[in-house]
Design a protein that fits this description.
Catalyzes cyclization of the linear tetrapyrrole, hydroxymethylbilane, to the macrocyclic uroporphyrinogen III. It is built from ten helices and eleven strands. It is an alpha/beta fold. The protein has two domains: 99 residues, Rossmann fold; 123 residues, Rossmann fold (3-Layer(aba) Sandwich). Strand 9, helix 9 and strand 10 form a beta-alpha-beta unit.
Length: 290
Amino acid sequence: MARSQDPRSPLAGLRIVVPRGGPAGARAAAGIQARGGTPVVVPLIEARPPADPEPLRTALAAWHSGSYDWLVVTSAAGAAAIGEAGAAPVPGCGIAAVGPVTAAALSTRGLSPTLSPAHAFTGAALGAALVAELSAGEHCESARVLLAVAEAAGVDFESALRAAGHEVDRVAAYRTVPTAVDPAAERAAADADVILLTSGSVVREVAARLAPVPATTLLVAIGPPTASAASAELRPPDIVAARHTVSGMLDALGLHLAAQDPSSPSHSDSDSDSDSDSAAPIHRTTGDPA
């Protein structure tokens, strides 16, 4: 892959597949362009309302009545879904977000979160953060939590809460489905230098529609669960982001490429990967997150 040596543009010369459309795809494309790369937007999945919207309406009615202590959201798509369903803040109750993008999506809908992990933006990290928050509280020995997720989301969050003695009600806020096949876009993706693997659902669609992925194409996973899915369905990813956001993926890609380039300064003292194996500290938001 031919690349510029301009350090101000760490991804210059790279064609990078963005597997989502809509606002998420636009944010990723802008991040790539800001780093000198060329985004190849090939939406492989999209979010749709649940097949049966009644459970979500019922769950939000219970939230609004004060039946829950916490509302937990694990994706920006989930934030959009509950916002469209009429979710509103409840005095005295907490809202938790899995990471900064989800927190921002909640805040724009008047649902400012009060808790999120500081670094590892996963269900497991969010579960650990909320368990720690509840353990430090004085009034809630056993909390009741409403978890709004995708239909096929994992169970790491509720496993952590239930193991600590808390009650979790899970409701499908949306479902992730494959997009319509676009042969021209998928041919363009086949010639790309990098594919961003932003979820297990994306991995499945890459395996179904873009495989075999050339060995020269770099696979970048957003975090360990997606990396595991890639190892099972494609091949082990070349890069796993320490910060579980698209921006973190692009930063990790830039560091990886610099490490392969003998003309670049060493990044051995960088702290960008320092949180990859550490416990996630708690971040309590006091306004719109960064």
